[in-house]
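To whoever is on call:

I kicked off a structure prediction for a single chain this morning and the downstream step that reads the tokens threw a length-mismatch warning. I double-checked the sequence; it's 319 residues and nothing unusual in it as far as I can see. Pasting both halves so you can look.
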Amino acid sequence: MKYIDSPRLEKFRKTAIIKIETRLDTGVYSMKKYTAFTLAEVLITLAIIGVVAALTIPTVITNYQKKMYVTQLKKSYNMFTNGFRTMMAKEGVTKLSDTALWAKMPENSSVFYQSQLFDESGQNFKTEFEKTFKIISLQNSSNYLKNYDSKIEALNAKVEDEPPGSISWFFISSFRSNFVVLADGTTLEFSLYKQPQTASCGGQKCRSLSEFRKSRNTSSKFWEYVGTISIDVNGIKGPNKLGRDYFNFFISNDGSLVPDNGIEYAIYSGKNNDYKKNITYWNSEEGSLDKNNNCSTKNKSFGYGCAARIMEERWEMKY
């Protein structure tokens, strides 16, 4: 058979040659030998990654947990503040002590505790309370041991650091036997006063708000407070520790929550006009080492002032 050359065949032949040469140049058809990491190099690299992970992952987890605690605390704070104020707005009153909720407290008791929700005397209060805050369960002494780690730990102190019988010793060495669980998992303990607690002026009861302001050179939400509330922001989960997931507040008669050992509390309870010098302030110049009031992981601290510290530091847990 005779092959006939033609311009088209010649063009095809040249194109094929160019493609083959290109592939040879790029290594497609090359017999060049490639090298890789040795097993020792791979193991060393993995070891380095493991060391770095061991050093950084705990910090990442801790920071994440802190953000979660603060987020939950802020949510709880807003829930109660907005709930109380909405309650007052609906009823057209300006004080919690004038609301229907406070009117439902038993007549024979000046202080209403969460434990009374278990009794028949507290059912009217419970019904009114649930119009604003949904209760999903009440935990009492018969079931808290199996459902809840009910002992509260101090932030950075131990029971042994306090003399037996003191308030702080009693608080962190005792177990909670009654508390309220809300729909979002938050647990509560509270003491509500049927009559507002009026602030003092130098150890004596103030006759008027203006007298109190003159005594303190400013005003304070503690002029009238109507209760205290302890909030565990993540409920049955740990660590159940003051300053981490457990925080204390006072309830002002205007519906706001005032953190324990914060500025307002220091203004109310201190003898000096400068709250920074009152040891009842979590970050006071004179009381920074007072383990009862401060919020520190460097010195011994029960953590009572940690909610105030978080709020004053723009909702961050810097400890």
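Update from on-call: the warning came from a stale cache, not from the record. Cleared it. Sanity check on the structure: The chain has a mean pLDDT of 78.
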